[in-house]
């Protein structure tokens, strides 16, 4: 399984970068987890849009979905000029289906997903759990045919279901929106310490902190998470690659 961080910022992208987007090549499929602001442009450094098989949307906040509609237009144009023959499969929380604004069903096929259920994309298996967030949001677990596992948290506050989903995951990409000193300021997001606790309780093989804040000394997030989690831990960055 090859994982590429396309964007790692919470809320809005830093200059020339992107908010949430993670390209996973697994089981013969190229799967994009979230498609936030800036992702569509940066994605093309790593994956031709003709080759993208599927997008999984954790929830409908703009920093996770803003570029999905531009991606639909890209698919439309590529199909019109014959550069792409198959539509893009978009997997979205059943609770969000009515909120989505895709306009071309011949270009984008939307598939509802639910917490506690599994689906397959190519030979990759996907499972989902319900997060704690202002709006419905799913965490995603991908399992390769070789049995390697990635869990991506999406946006969440402290959440037992995420710990369960992340049990023994080879890689946990977990949001870390706040510093520990900000604990309790905003529900629906994790402090670095909480992210570290979740990684520790899940027994994750390695942990990547993401959905990063635009202020402060971000290495402090690693320090705070490492008080709880003793495995390898790093900050996500644009174009980061992880192979498992
Ligand atoms: Zn977000
Ligand atoms: Zn959100």
From TrEMBL:
One family name in Pfam for this protein: Lactamase_B_2
SUPFAM superfamilies in alphabetical order: Metallo-hydrolase/oxidoreductase (SSF56281)
Domain Metallo-beta-lactamase: 18-185
Reported function: Counteracts the endogenous Pycsar antiviral defense system. Phosphodiesterase that enables metal-dependent hydrolysis of host cyclic nucleotide Pycsar defense signals such as cCMP and cUMP.
GO molecular function: 3'-tRNA processing endoribonuclease activity
Protein's organism: Cohnella phaseoli
Protein known as: Ribonuclease BN (tRNA processing enzyme)
UniProt KW keywords: Zinc
InterPro entries: Metallo-B-lactamas, RibonucZ/Hydroxyglut_hydro
Domain of life assignment: Bacteria
Annotated catalysed reactions: 3',5'-cyclic UMP + H2O = UMP + H(+); 3',5'-cyclic CMP + H2O = CMP + H(+)
């Amino acid at each position: 399984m090859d994982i590429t961080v396309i964007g790692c910022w919470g809320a809005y992208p830093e200059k020339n970068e992107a908010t949430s987007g993670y390209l996973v090549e697994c089981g013969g499929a190229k799967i994009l987890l979230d498609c936030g602001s800036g992702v569509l442009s940066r994605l093309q450094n790593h994956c031709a849009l003709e080759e993208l098989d599927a997008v999984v949307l954790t929830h409908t906040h703009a920093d996770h979905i803003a570029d999905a509609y531009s991606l639909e237009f890209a698919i439309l144009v590529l199909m019109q000029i014959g550069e792409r023959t198959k539509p893009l499969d978009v997997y979205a929380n059943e609770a969000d289906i009515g909120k989505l604004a895709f306009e071309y069903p011949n270009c984008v096929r939307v598939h509802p997903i639910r917490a506690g259920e599994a689906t397959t994309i190519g030979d990759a298996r996907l499972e989902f759990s319900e997060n704690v967030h202002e709006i419905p949001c799913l965490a995603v677990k991908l399992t390769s045919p070789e049995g390697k596992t990635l869990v991506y948290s999406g946006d969440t506050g402290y959440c037992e279901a995420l710990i369960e989903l992340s049990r023994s995951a080879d890689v946990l990409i977990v949001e870390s929106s706040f510093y520990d000193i900000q604990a309790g300021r905003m529900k629906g997001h994790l402090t670095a310490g909480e992210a570290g606790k979740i990684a520790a309780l899940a027994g994750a093989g390695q942990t990547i902190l993401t959905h990063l804040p635009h202020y402060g000394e971000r290495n402090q997030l690693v320090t705070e998470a490492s008080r709880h989690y003793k495995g390898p831990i790093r900050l996500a960055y644009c174009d980061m690659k992880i192979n498992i």
